[in-house]
């Protein structure tokens, strides 16, 4: 072997993003110092190998390639900042020592560590590798211990999930005001069962939701997101649930609905490739109960009309409905029905004022349920404490403890959701009542406009069981709309402008506000 061959070295610099490498010099600093060492030792640098990967586990590609090149005779030594840059696991450390034993690696040089290929030098090197492994093992255990303590305190120990942000000062997380509404929208949309994950991805991504570093979310990202209990207040870590102190983005009820949809593997209705008809699929035949379908007819004048008629596919009933109903006639009847449930401005304003009075009374008498629920939560806390004691005294094994704890944690979360819902219930109920009253004010406006899709959608809001029989439209009003339809406040009784607040008695108004 010539003198030149004996002095050929690789520079190996490594720095990962792991916790143990945070205090290690940067790649540039390592390389700069190693080049100065190479010049000082008068060695030739064959190549500079840079690796940005942890050495906790074997399998670093750049490291493996460097050793192969050394075995091929390209170099006889390695320059590295410290032995822990070469190995933090027993396999890589043993491989280097073995290559030194058989003479493949002649020299190792470090600015911060002395090595000589003698029995004493190899012994010291093995100790350095062992210390590196001990350090990483001990650090890993300390990190796990810190994570467990954070979890017990209800704190998420890692990078905040999408929809939340990390607070570097308090070490806690808080809701991302920009992304959290889109996260909630994703849950709400999927809970309807109308969308596949692929369709949901397109909808939510188009709304502007992005992941880390502004990357678009994949289908698998949405699947993971929709199954993460973190968004309703629980932390799931290694199969165990912990109560989170972070602010939930959704309620557990919504989360459970999403899980049901995902379990059913709900598929959206296939897009209708046939011609569009405004009311097709909307009505049933009032006689036989089967679907009303539609078709277009062209008159001799060349004008096209849309007609609706019964499909007559009921095998148990011979339907006698032979009359075709024009779309314009259906729209006209719907307008009349909508006018029946419209309120005049003065009636609506009076009801809104009564709604506010009832809201104040309700707020003054809502503490009993809250106190009862809080007492139940306290009992669950006691059970959790006893469960922990049983586990520490080895009465329960890990699996039994986790299963029992997860059950209690979920029960507690249900109660917390009920408590939160109760605290908002009064406001929500009165807000719904106010929205209903305002919608009833809008009814006459909607009925007066030439917007067939608008009147159809409003009819769907106020009723169900839509039927056509003998060219007459009928339906069943929902909730409070039943009262307005029953009392016939609409155009059939009197024009909206002539209604007065005396039309609705306080008793009847109270009934309407409760529906």
SSE topology sketch:
Elements: H1 3-6, E1 8-14, H2 27-41, E2 44-51, H3 61-71, E3 77-79, H4 83-86, H5 90-101, E4 107-109, H6 119-152, E5 164-167, E6 172-175, H7 180-191, H8 197-207, H9 219-226, E7 234-237, E8 240-243, H10 252-264, E9 284-285, E10 292-298, E11 304-310, E12 325-326, H11 327-340, H12 345-363, H13 367-392, H14 398-448, H15 452-462, E13 463-469, E14 472-477, H16 481-487, H17 506-514
Parallel strand pairs: 1-2, 1-3, 3-4, 9-13
Antiparallel strand pairs: 5-6, 7-8, 10-11, 11-12, 13-14
Helix pairs in contact: 5-6, 7-8, 7-10, 8-9, 11-14, 11-15, 12-14, 13-14
Task: Explain what you see.
- The chain has 515 residues and is α/β, with parallel strands linked by helices.
- It has helices at 3-6, 27-41, 61-71, 83-86, 90-101, 119-152, 180-191, 197-207, 219-226, 252-264, 327-340, 345-363, 367-392, 398-448, 452-462, 481-487, 506-514, and strands at residues 8-14, 44-51, 77-79, 107-109, 164-167, 172-175, 234-237, 240-243, 284-285, 292-298, 304-310, 325-326, 463-469, 472-477.
- The chain has four domains: 3-147, Rossmann fold (3-Layer(aba) Sandwich), CATH 3.40.50.1390; 164-264, Putative Large Serine Recombinase, Chain B, Domain 2 (Hect, E3 ligase catalytic domain fold, Alpha-Beta Complex); 284-331, no CATH class; 345-514, no CATH class.
- 51% of the residues lie in helices and 13% in strands.
- β7 and β8 form a beta hairpin.
- The protein is elongated.
- The N and C termini lie far apart (96 Å).
